[in-house]
Specification:
Low-confidence stretches: 1-9
Structural class: alpha/beta
Number of helices: 7
Shape: globular
Radius of gyration: 17 Å
Bound molecules: adenosine-5'-triphosphate, magnesium ion
Helix content: 25-40%
Order of helices and strands: HEHEHEHEHHEHE
Number of strands: 6
Length: 205
Amino acid sequence: MNTNDITSSNKINVNSNKANASHYHHNLIVFTGDGKGKTTAALGCVLRTLSHNMNAIIYSFLKKDSLTKEFYLLEKLGIKVIKSQSPCTWNISEDEKIVCHKEWYELFDNIKSIILDRSNNINTIVLDEINHLFTINDFDASEFENFLSDLTNIQLNNKSEIKNIILTGRNCPNKIIKNSTICSEIKNLYHCYSNGEKPIKGIDF
Ligand code: ATP
Ligand code: MG
């Protein structure tokens, strides 16, 4: 069993969240839960970043070819969208997991070098569907926490422009949530898919 797992009704102590809110030098914003709206909330924040003449960058951990149209629109607006080549999927072998983990470490290094170059003026980083790395593909959440601490050190030493790291995906591990600045658990009350209806153009894709 994956020790990173949490249930959607995880019981996070909100007060302890607040005590840890300044753990990093950036804001850590988490959109999790089983309801619709996590990625769209993150993209709404990207729009707000742009409206202040700051840049954002998006890393997607979705399966290949599952990027929805708005990501291409964002690219036209100058937002870099970087796709992980090792998507989160169920039923992969231990050997495949090793390959995935290696790529994710490289991706985190890539993020650090982009941040180090202040001319990129990146204010907001979206890590879309990253939470699945921990719950499906056994990526150690502690390693991710180390990465977030590295970002803080980079910021303290280089005064990078990074202010916001946004994570999306169901089942965000508690150990990440407890250091968040904002965490919303979006709860599914009803979605028409469950009634056999088709995804809605302009809303679901
Ligand atoms: P969105 O991209 O719409 O913000 P999301 O990021 O919260 O959704 P994902 O788990 O990434 O949710 O799912 C992506 C797709 O699945 C979207 O088309 C979304 O509309 C749909 N979806 C999200 N939540 C649900 C749900 N509870 N039931 C059925 N479909 C869902
Ligand atoms: Mg999503």
